[in-house]
User: Fold this.
Amino acid sequence: MQSKLFFYGGAGSVTGSNFMLEVQNPDASVGARFLIDCGLFQGEHALQKNNWDQWSFDPTTITALINTHAHIDHIGRIPKLVKDGYRGPIISTKATRALAEPMLLDALELNERDAKRHNVAPLYTKDDIAQALKQWEGIEYHEPKTFGDVIFEFYNAGHILGSALAKFTRKDGGQARSIVFSGDLGGGNSPLLPLAEVPEGAQYLLIESVYGDRKRDDTNRREALENSIEDAVARGGTLLIPAFSTERTQDLLFEIKSLMQEKRIPSIPVYLDSPLAEQITAAFEKHPEYFKDEIKERALNGEHIFAFPELHFVSSVEESAKLHTTPNPKIILAGSGMSNGGRVIDHEKHVLQDAKSTLLIVGYQAAGSLGRKLVEGAKQVEIYDIHSHTAQKIEVRAHVQVLYGYSAHMDGEQLLEYVNKMSDTNKLEEVFVVMGEIASSSFLAQRIRDYLGVKATTPEVGESVTIAF
Ligand SMILES: [Zn+2]
Assistant:
């Protein structure tokens, strides 16, 4: 029994997750074709250009599209796939489906802007998103789906609300063979989500490696957040957090609310300046069944998990502009998380030049993004102004602090330990290390080989391998 695995995106880079499992029939003809994720390439311009490329396969021949979670680098090209003729099922957890609509509509706005800038047609339209949602089915974790002789099942990945690992199983004679696609894996840092599950008995694993070469100390993250807020208050400045709309924003709102309720930080205004994050927060409130038990219980007892008196939602662009002149100290959370677009850009123009203020970076920053330059200590940055279409030079005088403790990803140690757990039954035959920058993926693959004695490779984009599945 043989199948083929194609690495169309998310190999040699973090973003653009897109894999295909092509199941072969006993007579070697092609059986089912599963697409796993259909994400947008993000970050450097050269990489982003790939989004406009033709598919390396015929979209009309796909049996089912399985989606691990609602981040745009995992769902962002789904409407394009639909536009190009895909009419089969799109399957994710219910929460992923709920988050997908606001995420895709927001991505479309950014895409239309990018397309104008580079003089190309946008990747897709609102109608394509609507069509995709018609084909989109939300299911539960551990709810099996059968396609011919292949059974498919989601496991909780603990990364963002509704995130999942996808496990495919096929019987070979009496023996089951399985392959697991990790999606992104959470390292247990969310105050809201349960830990990632470990599916057992798989022969093959595709694993993410965003932080494959890094070790984080997350133990004092709450104190670090508290200190950051207190410092900004003491200086009388603004604490600006470029926030990822999904999960990170809700994690931080929850932590800030708790710190204020416990009187560990002063009661100062908190502005959530992201209509997308506001919608996503509302979707979180509607799906408390995905929270860890203690939070689920609070939500089911009627508590609005993300509401507190100091929190203000900023809807209009005018209100957003007014925040520059509202008195300090204050906290502003604004998108996007990598400072490569969105309202955070306008705030950064003001905050970065103010020595009293702090820019707090809380997540992965893709190579080439403004956020990455700031993490690397740039003293002067260029910020592109979408109104005047010019780049403006900004001196960085603000305190730039980095707090990875709220990362939604496992670090290198956790990833290795995760593979170790999966290889406990001695069934794991090969690990494909993907969704990381090359240095990071290679480092993790090396450690899997050295420490666990399991075959581990780092496939390149466009590569395919034959597997016994
Ligand atoms: Zn993700």
User: Anything to note?
Assistant: Residues 94-117 form the longest helix (24 residues).
